[in-house]
Design goal:
Blueprint: E1 16-17, E2 24-25, E3 53-56, E4 59-62, E5 66-67, H1 82-94, E6 99-101, H2 110-118, E7 127-132, H3 152-166, E8 173-176, H4 185-197, E9 204-207, H5 211-220, E10 225-229, H6 241-248, E11 251-255, H7 290-307, H8 311-322, E12 326-328, H9 335-342, H10 351-362, H11 373-376
Parallel strand pairs: 5-6, 6-7, 7-8, 8-9, 9-10, 10-11, 11-12
Antiparallel strand pairs: 1-2, 3-4
Helix pairs in contact: 1-2, 1-9, 3-4, 4-5, 7-8
Length: about 400
């Protein structure tokens, strides 16, 4: 998800008004491991090698992907140049990126259309992921009063729409964007299984789900990837989600790996957010919490000087060093930032350095919630059991 100063990691601010709150929501946004070209060497005295390919379950992808969520509109609600967005996607492919992540909810539909056009020349050589789960009708309108919809018939219609917009006959991986509290995950897995048998979906995953739901989903239909927010700024997955992924052999994809631009240094004590910019409603960026949280930015900047690289590359390389099956998907609307992000896999940490950096990151206690409460309420949800 987008992590530069002028981009939105997702159009969370514009997705839909939920239950009369008027808050703009969006689809936020281990047997798997590094392939022979991407290894994590942790023996004493040897460098930690962050290679260019990783695996999400059995699905091989580039170590750093590209999030295509905000190419239709930035945080400041400006509209990026479509031709330039297509150039950025194609340049990412030229630089070795093979994982491109989007969702029907981004726009809605707009980012799928952009991505579909951009990857046409090399569709068979890349991994396209999309998501279902929000209650969006075929015309792109959000259904009021019921923000989520993972009924099997709706899932199948949503995937058909994604395939058409992405100009492809299959999705390499499809996620349930948020758990629907009205639909058993076994029913969701059944619908995805049907799509797999039809050749329309090859792998599946979940995003921001409850742990019990992930276990049940994986038991019903093996899950290849979980996509959750994870960065130096939000380390919540470390407690339970990452250990469970490791136990089950599930890959982990990080949305907002640069903390919505924060870890790039795009936000400082003088930053004032534009109306409609969801970051203005996140407690971690409030005037009370921001000064303490800026210690993370200073830490990343110091390490960037030490390693002769960019702050954002330090933040991404830190994620890659945590597990060999973690893949960040930074998004951007700027060519220079895409080039910088894509090169993060080349940053090297010695074992001693990563121990030092881990300790420094975890010594900083981030203050404030990562999302506005109504948006956060969609995370960690457990699906009902069948027959309940």
């Amino acid at each position: 998800m987008s992590d530069d100063a002028t981009s939105a990691q997702v159009s969370r601010r514009g997705l839909l008004g939920v239950a009369g709150t008027g808050v703009a929501l969006a689809a936020l946004g281990a047997g798997s491991g590094v392939t022979t070209s991407a290894r994590a060497v942790t023996a004493p005295g040897k460098a930690v090698q962050i290679g260019d390919r990783r695996k999400l379950g059995s699905l091989e992808v580039s170590a750093v992907g590209l999030g295509v969520q905000n190419m239709h509109r930035t945080y400041q609600t400006t509209i990026p140049d479509r031709a330039e967005m297509i150039r950025i996607i194609r340049a990412a492919y030229d630089q070795g990126v093979t994982l491109f992540d989007t969702a029907e909810a981004y726009g809605p539909f707009e980012d799928e259309l952009i991505l579909g056009e951009a990857v046409q020349p090399f569709r068979k050589d890349v991994v396209i992921t999309s998501k279902f789960g929000w209650n969006i009708d075929p015309d792109g309108k959000r259904v009021t009063g019921a923000p989520l919809n993972s009924r099997p018939d709706h899932i199948k219609r949503a995937v058909e729409g994604s395939l058409k917009r992405l100009r492809t006959d299959y999705l390499d991986l499809v996620y349930q964007h948020r758990v629907d509290p009205a639909v058993p995950i076994e029913d969701v897995a059944g619908a995805v299984g049907d799509l797999m048998r039809e050749g329309k979906v090859r792998h599946w995953g979940l995003s921001e789900m409850g742990l019990g739901t992930l276990r049940r989903a994986h038991a019903t239909l093996p899950v290849s990837a979980v996509q959750n927010e994870y960065s130096m700024l939000w380390r919540g997955p470390e407690a339970e989600v990452l250990p469970l992924c490791e136990q089950l052999g599930i890959g982990f994809v990080c949305w907002s790996p640069l903390g919505v631009g924060f870890l790039n240094g795009a936000i400082d004590a003088q930053t004032r957010f534009a109306q409609g910019d969801i970051r203005g409603g996140e407690g971690r960026f409030s005037s009370e919490n921001l000064p303490q949280n800026l210690a993370l930015v200073e830490l990343v900047k110091r390490w960037a000087l030490r390693k002769n690289t960019a702050p954002g590359q330090i933040a991404l390389a830190w994620l890659l060093a945590q597990r060999p099956w973690i893949v960040p998907i930074p998004g951007t609307t700027q060519m220079a930032h895409m080039t910088e992000n894509s090169a993060a896999a080349q940053v090297r940490f010695s074992p001693e350095e990563i121990v030092e950096l881990n300790a420094a990151v975890r010594a900083i206690e981030v203050q404030g919630a990562r999302l506005p409460p109504p948006v956060l309420s969609f995370s960690g949800v457990e699906a009902p059991t069948q027959g309940s």
